[in-house]
Amino acid sequence: MQIVVLAGGVGGSRFTAGVRRAYPDATITVVGNTADDITIHGLRVCPDLDTLMYTLGGGGDAERGWGRLDESWRAIEELRAYGAEPTWFGLGDRDLGTHLVRTELLAAGVPLSEVTARLCARWWAHDPGLRLLPMTDDPVETYVDIPDADAPGGRRSVHFQEYWVRLHAGPEALALRQVGIEAARPAPGVLEAVAAADLVLVGPSNPVVSIGPILAVPGVREALRSAPAPVLGFSGILHGAPVLGMAHRLLPTIGVAVDAAAVGRHYGSRRADGVLDTWVVDTADAGSAPALEADGLPTLVRDLVMSSPDATAVFVRSTVDQVLA
Ligand SMILES: C[C@H](OP(=O)(O)O)C(=O)O
Questions:
Q1: Distances 227 to 205, 222, 267 between C-alpha atoms, Å
Q2: What distance in angstroms lies between residue 274's CA and the mean position of ligand 1's atoms?
Q3: Is this prediction's ipTM beyond 0.95?
Q4: In terms of domains, do 8 and 124 share one?
């Protein structure tokens, strides 16, 4: 079986670990979000790709949900001692190795998809059926407008990582821009993987800054709409709050309520102009299923708390079984 998973970082990697547990013999192509990438201290950092790579490679810090296991922070202490800002971004010492390799290869003209494959060769060697593709090789970065009384127009723009990591998504996000998205081309293999898939899974990642950008890469949405395989989406909003992260701070910015049904409608049914065949909501949101069904979006209800890869595997397998039955 060939499975494609669309994934962000923290939620996306937990979900993908469950998919791998559910389908140990499948070929799984993970299309990872790169719209929250950043260049920091001259290093190109791809937070979602790295979280996926480390988590599925057994090298991630499961408790924190991102970064390397057994990490230390000596380098960033040195930067702080020099007053070399920014130091709010968690650049761990082990993690730096990844960013150095990536930055050197990109500078040598190696495309991000090839860089990612080379990095994953270390982490995913034990699992040749697993492949990580960036959504695009072209640079895309997300900026957030926040209120600032001292700035012209009363607002200023910050990189998404600054909004997320330094500001903890505290200020209201007045607007979001994915710079570079219109010109981005799907990375080699992305459209082909979707076309060849037996199953496409849209993970419970952030609909605004993780899944949204993947779908916004020109050609990806169309590929999902015309995929021969069923497309299942899993809600990351449970009972009006994100299962992980801070998606509730950004959904209102794109005019979507912090609600599983609203996110399902936002992705939409393939029978209309959306991308999903089936939307999966948590048991806490079971009440929304009849209305979604009536609106033409087939909806399944499961316990979507990703407490372990096994728990995730249970809901993935049972929904897929029902859809393929
Ligand atoms: C938790 C969620 O993870 P991701 O979208 O990176 O999978 C988020 O950051 O909102």
A1: 21, 8, 15
A2: 21
A3: no
A4: yes
